Amino acid sequence: MSWISRLATQAPVPVFVAIGDDAPPQTARLALHTGLTLVDSPRAAAILLVAGTIPDALIPHLHRLHDQFPHPRASVLWQSSQPDLLPAAIVAANTVDIVSVLTETRDALLSGAHKTEPDILPDAPLNEWRRIGPHGQGGEGMMGGTPYGRPMAMTADDMRDGLKLDAYTADFGPFLPMFPPGLVLTLTLQGDVIQKVAVVHPPFDVDWNQGVSLLRLLGLPGLADRLLRNGLTASATQTRLIRWSGARAAIPPGLGRTHDGSDVRDRFDRLIADPANPKAPHIDGIHLTDLLVGLEWHEAMLVLNSFDTGALQRICANGGDGDDQRDTETIHASHVGHGS
Amino acid sequence: MNFVLVLPAMIAALALGIWVAAILDATCRSLVAGQGRMSLTAAAPLRAAASYMSRQRLTTEAPDRMNWFLSIASYLALAAIGLAMVPLGPNTAVIGISTSVVLWGACESLVVVVVFLHGWSPNSPLALIGAYRYVAIGLPVMLLSMFVLIAAALPARSLDLREIVTSQAGMWNVLRQPLGLPLFLFLGLSLTLRGPFDYADSADLAGGTSVEDSGADRAGWQVARLAMLVGFSAMAATVFLGGYLGPVLPGAVWLILKTLAVMAVVIALSHLLARMPVARMLGLIWKVLLPLSFVDLLWAGLAALP
Predict the structure, then answer these.
(1) Per-residue b or e along A257-285, where b marks 16 or more CB atoms closer than 10 Å to that residue's CB
(2) Does the pLDDT value for residue A315 go beyond 70?
(3) Smallest CA–CA separation between B74 and chain A, in Å?
(4) Residue B225, SS3?
(5) Cα–Cα distance between B229 and B18 in angstroms, integer?
């Protein structure tokens, strides 16, 4: 083992967590363990931890995620009923100390005792070259289309200022750390403004602390850890630190407003002040299009993470604009996703 | 002091500063998180760097490899240039020119360029969004900085950092121009991609411009960010806290102490202040912070009248 590898074994284990449908409840608290670093990007990780079950429809996303890890890499399936999900993965029993498994796996990777995992997917384009359009990419001129299944930006009307800027359509999720686990959306973006939304897969039925997610999105990871550690007990120090941080003022008023007048600020207040008793917002008839279209990326992430799983599942089930849905079905067949 | 001695000393100081900044950052994060038991050791930053270096440098499909590398190297170089302009004594600075404030302003502006390149080069949508967002925020923040720096230069009647330090012999600029340092700290948060001004590498973009960095690239970018924190802190200590001026202790010791103090404040602010969405922050900068910086300039100008 080289001296760099020896030194690296003393660092926290960089882990990217792919949360599945019935992930162990202690998954979220892994972020508090000093022996681990839960990273936001597979590029920063050595180990892919798959917690729970991945539905068949999302397995291709998991395979793409796996192949984005740098070598040497390994994957661990935790509380999974799908031992063949990833060909070379280590399967960890439900009762095992998962931190020890991750640490031993990382150390074995660095020493060479555990071989790095090869790609699952072929290093080739998702789709064949279709030879459509003057330059073969299926768009117009030198822009747009989905050459080899890769979505390219194309000029389109901007809903805010009327300028024809580049619209970009792609799937996002289901393992993006800023998305509720399992959610896959087809988004059309102009810059970072959301122009169209369609639901490809609803979020999993897992409990996650929306207050923690909102604090992370607001750039307060330390306070998010404090909230996660305290669980449903709001301490005076925690409440004071969050108030002084200006987190509430940072959230634009009226953002993500529902029929009962509740907005992200209200839901955030409730999550922080009384995390044990979140108030269910009135969401009948509300679709993600109503909530997200016209918002910038950061605002949209705040809206998505302000709802609990049940509410978000109902919003996703509410359906949306028929044209958007049809477009999505056509586009989705050939898209490469992000965060998968 | 001989240039041949000062240059290695500066590089050593930068390396030491990066290490101290990493320790301070992790400590502050633990304190804010209410982590009872501190398991942090002095070797933690080296271990983290080794962990990055032990993994492969991945690339993306059709990246701009040259600019990807140059963005990381240039960010580090800009931090080193900033530190090199800081006077260590009345006539001692690695880069001792009569227009050093202008050169620092150029470094600030070039940070916007290199951060944009870092997000643009991987050919990846989340990285590109981070790049564009940073430019949108970075431009008005640079304007703010220019007003504040010109105000600090007015009492010295010079754009030379050595003269600006000398002009603070009677009273530091932090007292003479009370709006200056708080506004300049916002620039520091933006230059170092931290906390409320981290619109490039933020959590809502899964790491933004650095989302595709792996291995040595990731280590290099994190080191460059910390290096910029060192360079900025030394510059803020020089422009507003009298730099090397101080009783009893040698000037270099005073400069180090003041730099560490600024660094600690920037790190604390980055963990304690929330980041608002871009449009809301742009409103705050253009409608509140920029007018305040102009008031700062007006205040300094009136005070400097003979």
Answers:
(1) bbeeebbbbbbbbbbbeebeeeeebebee
(2) yes
(3) 22
(4) helix
(5) 8
B158 burial via Cβ count (<10 Å: 0-12, 13-18, 19+): middle
Question: What pLDDT is recorded for position A326?
Answer: 37
Give B56's contacts in chain A (Cβ within 8 Å): 70-72
Class of residue B67 by CB neighbours under 10 A (exposed 0-12, middle 13-18, buried 19+): middle
Q: Which of B247, B121, B270, B257 is nearest to B199 (CA)?
A: B270
Query: What is the domain range of residue B159?
Result: 3-304
Q: How far apart are CA A265 and CA A282, in angstroms?
A: 15
Count of domains observed in chain B: 1
Rounded Cα–Cα distance for residues A182 and B142 (Å): 40
Helix or strand run (H / E) with residue B251: helix B251-272
**Tokens in use for A269?**
């207040």
Contact B263, B19 (CB under 8 A): no
Name, in order, each residue with C-beta under 8 angstroms of A2's C-beta and a sequence gap of 6 or more.
none
Cβ–Cβ gap A296/B279 under 8 Å: yes
- Rounded to whole angstroms, the Cα distance separating A299 from A303 reads 6
Phi, psi of A318 (to 5 degrees): -70, -15
ipTM of the complex: 0.93
**Residues ≥6 apart with Cβ < 8 Å to A170:** A151, A186, A187, A335, A336, A337, A338, B125
Residue A67 and residue A120 in contact, taking contact as beta carbons nearer than 8 Å: yes
On the CB side of B77, CA atoms within 13 Å amount to 10
Domain A3-111 -> CATH class: alpha beta
**Per the structure block, which two tokens stand in for B241?**
């806290």
Q: Are A234 and A212 in contact (CB under 8 A)?
A: no
> Is A144's pLDDT higher than 80?
no
CB distance A11–B202 less than 8 Å? no
DSSP letters for B157-207? TSS-HHHHHHTTSSS-HHHHSTTHHHHHHHHHHHHTT-GGG--SS-GGGTT
| Domains in chain A: boundaries | 3-111, 147-202+325-335, 210-317
Q: Which of B195, B176, B177 has its CA nearest to residue B186?
A: B195
B220: which residues sit within 8 A by CB, 6+ positions away?
B72, B73, B76
pLDDT of residue A140: 67
B57, B272, B277 member nearest A299 (Cβ): B277
Alpha carbon B238 to its chain's center = 13
Residue A337 has pLDDT above 60, yes or no: no
Which residues of B are less than 8 Å from A46 in CB distance?
51, 54-55
The 8 Å CB, 24+ separation contacts for A133-141 are: none
CB-based contact A11 B48, cutoff 8 Å: yes
How is residue B295 written in tokens?
């008031």
The residues near A339 (Cβ < 8 Å, ≥ 6 apart) are A65, A172, A173, A174, A175, A176, A177, A179, B206
Distance in Å, alpha carbon of A44 to nearest chain B alpha carbon: 6
| B27, B204, B271, best to mutate vs chain A, most A CBs in 10 Å | B204
Count other Cβ atoms within 10 Å, centred on residue A49.
28
User: Phi and psi (nearest 5°) for A206?
Assistant: -120, 150
Burial class (CB in 10 A: 0-12, 13-18, 19+), A172: buried
A136, pLDDT greater than 70: no
Residues in chain B, pLDDT under 50: none
